[in-house]
Design goal:
Elements (H helix, E strand, L loop, with lengths): L4 H43 L1 H5 L3 H9 L6 E4 L6 E4 L9 H10 L3
Antiparallel strand pairs: 1-2
Length: about 110
């Protein structure tokens, strides 16, 4: 069976368009998920302003926005080596997400 060049081009275009639609949908789902987790964190600190202002969350988010760890939660037995940091609680977060929280809560 032979296929014409124009038919082949249509098939290739349709495959590319379908792939683009699927990736667009995945990106949209991922973005909604990111927006949701950031919004959840913003809502939490708006509902609990003492956590943001007095208990150090503001410092932690500013520190993580600057690329830091946000502070150490747990040290190794030598009391020098960090085992767990605040940033570990935010896997996959990017700087723009930390910035969104900071900006929404007035810095």
């Amino acid at each position: 069976m032979r296929i014409t060049e124009s038919k082949l081009r249509r098939i290739i275009r349709s495959v590319i368009e379908e792939s683009w639609r699927k990736h667009s949908k995945i990106d949209s789902i991922r973005q909604n998920s990111l927006n949701s987790k950031v919004q959840d964190k913003i809502n939490y600190y708006k509902d609990n302003p003492d956590e943001w202002h007095s208990k150090g969350a503001r410092y932690q988010f500013h520190n993580m926005l600057a690329g830091g760890s946000g502070g150490v939660i747990e040290y190794a037995e030598d009391d020098v080596t960090p085992i767990k940091t605040v940033r570990d609680g935010y896997p996959g977060w990017e700087n723009d997400e930390f910035e969104a929280v900071v900006n929404a809560l007035g810095g």
